[in-house]
Each structure stands twice: as C-alpha cells, then as structure tokens.
Amino acid sequence: DGGNTFANSTFVSFAGESLAGDNFSQELQDAGLGTPNQLLHTFDLNESFGGPIQRDKLWFWFSTRYNDVASEAPIFLNANAFNVNEWLYVPDTSSPAVAKGAQSNNSVRLTWQATPRNKFAGTFKADKWCNCPSQISATRALEASRDRRFPRLMQQHAEWTSPVTNRLLLEAVGMMLFERWGDMHLRASTGSITEAQAAIIPQLISVTEQSNNLTYRTRVNYNNTAVPSFTYRAAASYVTGTHAFKFGMNNTTGHLDENQYVLNGLSYRFNNGVPNQLTMRQNFRAQTNLDQDLGFYAQDRLTLDRLTVSLAARLDFFKTSFPDQTLGADPLGPNRNIQFPGSDNINWKDFTYRSGVAWDVFGTGRTAIKVGFNKYLLGQTLNALGRDPNPVLAMVTQVNRPWNDANRNFTPDCDILNLEANGECGVVSNRNFGSPAPAATFDPDLITGWNNRQSNWELSTSVAHELTRGIGVDVGYFRRAWANFRVTDNLAVTAADFTEFSMTAPSDPRLPGGGGNTLTGLYNVVPAKFGQVNDYNTLSGKIGDMTEVWNGMDFAVNARLQNGLTLQGGYSFGRTSFNDCEIVAQLPEMLTLTAANASGTPGGVNQLRSAAFCDRQEPWLSQFKMYGVYTVPTIDVQLSGTFRSTNGTDVAPGFVATNAYLAANSTLGRPLAGNRPNEVIGLIEPFAEYTDRRNELDIRLGKVLRFGRSRSVISLDVFNALNSNAQIQYSQAFASYQRPQEILNARLMKISYTLDF
To answer: Which alpha helices (DSSP H) does 628-707 contain, by range?
Structure first.
C-alpha cells in the first residue's frame, strides 16, 4: 500500500552459459540424446518504489519487471526446414534449436484512507510477454513450434475495507481483467526465423513421424484468443470471544472469443518416412459467454475450551451460454455457410460444505488432533464443458483419412473434398466433416441441475505435536474420492459393433518381462460402422460404476532453533486407484486414448489401450523435501538450501501395429476398419514404467550489506548443485522407446542483488 516513508526495493539477477555446468554424459549420448536442453541466459529486473502523496491520507506504490530468457532445446535445427520440396527431418548437428522468452509488466497502486474507518485502494497493471518461439522439444522441431504471445494483459482493481467496529469488518473488491493471448504462427520480428522463411510458412504441410513422434516442417493449427472478465466479491467478518463468523459472495462474468486458424488445412503422418495418413482441418471462430460464476458462503470457527470446530457451507451457481454465431467458407469447406442461434449451456447449482475439528489433547497447546471432512468442486472456466457444447466447437472440423501415396509425390492424388474413399485417399474418420451436424451432444444432466458438477470428497486426519520449544512434527492421512465423471458414448455404434481381439506384443528387452506377452481386450470397430460418429457426453453413473480414489500420508518437521537455524521438511507418499471396467465394457470406444490421457509425461502418443487395464493402480509414489536457512550473525552471511527428491512420471509406449503385423500376431482376422494402415497400441500396463527419479539440491550464499537506512544482499545461487542428469522425458514411440529426449538442466550458478531502503 505504500506508507508515510518513501521506500524502494530493487532485485536483479543474471545467469549465462558460462555459469552453467555440463551433465551431458557419454551414457546419454550412447542412448540417443542428440543434444541436451540447457540455459543460454536469463536476466530478471524488478523495481518497486512508493511513498506518501499526502501523509496519513494518500499513498502510492509502483512496480515494474522485465525478464528475458533463452535456452537450447533438446533438438537440432532441421536442415530441410522451410524447403517446400523436402519432406524429411535432417538434423543440423551444429545448431541446436533455441527457445526464447521475454516478459514485462508495470503496475501502480493508490491507497486512500478516506476516514479512520474507510480505506479505498486501486491498482492498474499492464503485462506483455512473448515466449517466441516456444514448445520446441525432442518431438517438435523449431519450424513446427509456435509464438506463445500475450500482447495485452490489463488489470484494473478497486477495493474497500471498513473496520466498522472492533468486531465487524466489511470488505468489497471489484476487478476488470482483459487478456489477449494465443499460440500464434512464427514471425520474423522475434528473430527466430527470417522474413523469407515466414513468407513460406503458409505453403508448408506439417508432418508427424510415427517412429519417433516428431512433428516438423510447420505447426498444424494456431489460435488468437481474447478473454475479458469482471469479478467482484464482498464479505463481512464478525468476531466474538467464542465465534469467528464470515459471510460473503463472489461473482465473475465475461466471455471467451477464440479464433482457431490454420495456415494450411492439411497435415501428414509418416511411418519411417512413408506417408500413411492425412488430416484435414477447417478454420473456425467461436465465442462462449460466462454468464455467472456466483457463490455465497457462510463459515464459523467455534472455540470451546480445548476444542475448535470449523463449519462452512457454500452455494455455487455456474452458468455459460453461446451467442448467435456464423461460419463462412473455408478452403476445405468452400460452400460452408452456417448460422447457429444463441443457446444456453452449463447451468450448475451446487451445495458444498467444509467441516473440521481440532482438539488440544492435553490443554498445553503442544499436541493437537485434527479431523476434516470436506467436499470440493472441480475448478471450471470457459474450457472443457464450459465451451465444448458450443455448436461451433461441436462441429467436426478435423478428420483423419488413410492415404497410400503410391507414386511418392507427397500429394494426395484424390478429390480431397470427397469424404468417401477415392484415388489414394480412404474414407474420412467422421463423415460429418464440415457440416452443421454436431460431432457431440451433451446430456442435460451433465451440464445442468443440482450437484452434477465434478467434485471430490476429502477425509483428512492429522496429529501435530511440539517435541520441544521450536521443534514440531505433523503426521497426516488423506483420502480423496472423485465423483461425476464425464464419459462419451458413440450412439452410432454399440458394443456389439466392435471386434474384440488379442495381440502378441513384440519381444523386446526394453519391455517388462522382455515382451512377447499376449495383450487381450483390444477392440476395433467393424468396417460397416467406420466413420459413423454420434458422440453423446453423459455422466459416468448412467453407464456404470467408475471410481478414482487417492490415499496418502504426510510426515512433516518444522524446526526454528534459538541460534537462528530454520529447518523445514517432510516426506509424503500416496497412490491413486482407477476403475472404469463397467464403462469400457459398454463403451469400447473409450479405450482410444489421447497422448495426454495415456501418459503422465510429455512425448506420449495417442493409442488404443487394452480393456484388461480397466482396473489399475499406481505404485506408492513418494517425495521428500527439505529446506534450511541460517544467517551467520557476526558476519551477516546468509546460507540456505533446498533438497527435493520426487518421482518421475509414468510412460506408455505405443506400438505401431500394421495390418501385416496384426494378420500374423493377432486374432483380429481382418484388416483394420476403414483401410487404416495401422493402429497404435499401448503395450504395457499403466503405471508400470516411470521416468527417472529426480534428486535436486539448490543452495544459496548471500552477503548482507548495510549502509544507513539501506540493506542490500549479494547472492550466489547454485541450482542442481549435484549436477543430476535425470531423464525428464524419453520417447514413447516403440521404434525409439526409451531414447532420452529431455534431462534436468545442468548445474547453474546465478548472481543476484537486492537493495531495500
């Protein structure tokens, strides 16, 4: 808020390539990692100052920040990039790709003490940043990356507080926020590509190579999005000797305006350099309105001798809708002219509550037992169900089709607008492509009504005990169970329209048990039903039982010793159990998973999963974290450090099973429906394989300098002091399975300076 004394706070830090170590071992090189990800430079400047405009009445506080960072990505530049006549990725081993980012923000806050019991404050903030280019990885070449831009982010905020009495406090806040952002196409202005290369982008067709899941040549789609919103809230707090009441409300309104665009409506899929599938995409623009995200709550904390009881209840009302919308012609839909009338969407009403009890066991304040039972709602924005039922988004604007490029001219020799099989092109995966017929409809019980929003119930118990002065321990158990899952039922088919089959996995020492096992519970739709899609989204409970439950424990220690040493740390472990057997038995179509659903780590692949894995459970996953800080009093030197040991993430290798392989190693007994050239099949049970465990030590050494009213600190930070090269990501495409794709950044030293007065 500022104050009656002018004050300043400055922070600046820098790290460069010369301050970084090297953890690119020969073992990683032999395993196939071409180049490591590593920092080139980072610079961060933060400046804040403020003080009185009118003493005891009006104050200001101004802040500004600028940050710039550049890193080498774990992939080389493509020697064939931006060449319309070259179709293969050829690494330029002398030039790693570089990702860059820059951010600036400025804010000013005014605070006015209008009367002794009425204070007003307002903030104006403007941000601008660009990660340009970004999303470069071992599976995405620079020319297929994006400019992640926030060209405009503005926030205007006003608040009022009034301590009416020593028992009653009133608060009110209003905020207007405007965000414009997008995953936009590469531009020469950022310096990552030239003007000539930028001009070629619309002529390029994106390619994804199945053998290593690499996307190159260009990106398939982009977006340019605007999100204006207005939020306000109010609360009243009333405290007595026994009770601490609080009542309040909050609401947010706004809309999401998204322009999803492609510069070329086609993209290709290759397997070992041979085309086998093409994807067709149409542009669209959609708007979704947030009519209300409204909540009312009441809570009380009741203190009775050694017992404290906390109770709270909340009513939530979440509503979205769609305005009138029009879609005009598109290169892959030249006759498209569709009008959608405005319609309502989500209209949820939910009641949730919180309850907790804390008991001071001996009345000494040193030992407490705590129990809580609470219900939480899934956070909802204008994504997922908030926007998916939009009639524009429910259209089929993307389809796949088999492609046999017999003459290897890398051009689909067919009538591309004819959705049936013709020439080199097979039938599309959904015959409703480009038509107003929705690809998906939504059960009213999924998007309206009382208590139908996805939620979770949490039970927690813990014991906290002070061992001695300044040293305490805390042990807790937690259980979380989720409810109201969304499932998708293709009404155009039934379970009887799928052929169940088994397949012998390839023998390979990289697989658990060496592979060669039989995968059962695989499904392929019968040829007569291929391309028939009428997806109906509904609540899981209407189809069958579906569960997701997490159980875990935390152990924590907090020590604040008299000599100034502070130590905090803890060990936690837990696991999640999933069961959707009753769902997939009736809806085999739900066994086709996106990469994000198949794997917990980037680099996953879309795949068909066996129904035999419908009842699955994570192993016990654990993490250990410790933090310590100490100031040497006589010389004013700060010493601190953190250590983290965390699990890796699960992986799911996808095997490209061709029709020839299936004919020899499966019971399918026919080619894949729709003349599809192959099916990517998940080979191992979920949670059977994880990336490396990560052990990271960060330390800081700082010298405090004092001059008059000023205090400054010169610090040296060392990140990843142990120089670990644990793998964060490796290939999950079977042909290159376990090839390293990303590791922890090497040891890095960063210099920083802080000045306060």
So the answer is: 659-665
Residue 183 falls inside a structural domain: yes
Q: How far is the C-alpha of 627 from the C-alpha of 691, rounded, in Å?
A: 25
Alpha-carbon distance of 448 to 319, in angstroms, equals 9
Residue 453's alpha-carbon distances to 12, 97, 249, 350, 597, in angstroms, are 45, 43, 19, 7, 21
DSSP assignment of 457-524 equals: EEEEEEEEEEEETTEEEEEEEEEEEEE--EEEEETT--GGGEEEEEEEPPB-TTSGGGB-PEEEEEEE
Q: Is 267 left (phi over 0), alpha (psi -120 to 50) or beta?
A: beta
Start-to-end CA distance of the chain, whole Å, equals 16
Q: What is the 8-class DSSP label of residue 677?
A: S
- Residue 172 placed within a domain: yes
Residue 67 domain boundaries: 1-199
- The DSSP line for 161-184 is EEE-SSSEEEEEEEEEEEEEEEEE
Query: Could you tell me the CA-to-CA distances from 684 to 510, 520, 582, 687 in Å, in that order?
Result: 11, 12, 21, 8
Q: What total number of domains does the chain contain? A: 1
Q: Residue 156 — φ and ψ, nearest 5°?
A: -125, 125
Q: Is 256 among the domain residues?
A: no
Burial of residue 402 (CB within 10 Å: 0-12, 13-18, 19+) is: buried
Average pLDDT by stretches of 10, the chain with 757 residues: 90 96 96 94 97 96 98 97 98 96 97 97 97 95 97 96 97 98 93 94 97 96 96 97 96 97 96 97 96 98 96 98 97 95 97 97 96 96 94 96 96 97 96 93 97 97 96 98 96 97 97 95 96 95 96 97 92 97 96 72 81 95 97 94 95 95 98 95 93 96 94 97 95 93 96 96
Q: For 674-685, give one letter per residue: b (16+ CB within 10 A) or e.
A: bbbbbbbbbbbb
The DSSP code for 619 is P
pTM of the model: 0.92
Residues 6 or more apart from 384 whose CB is under 8 A from it? none
193 domain residue, yes or no: yes
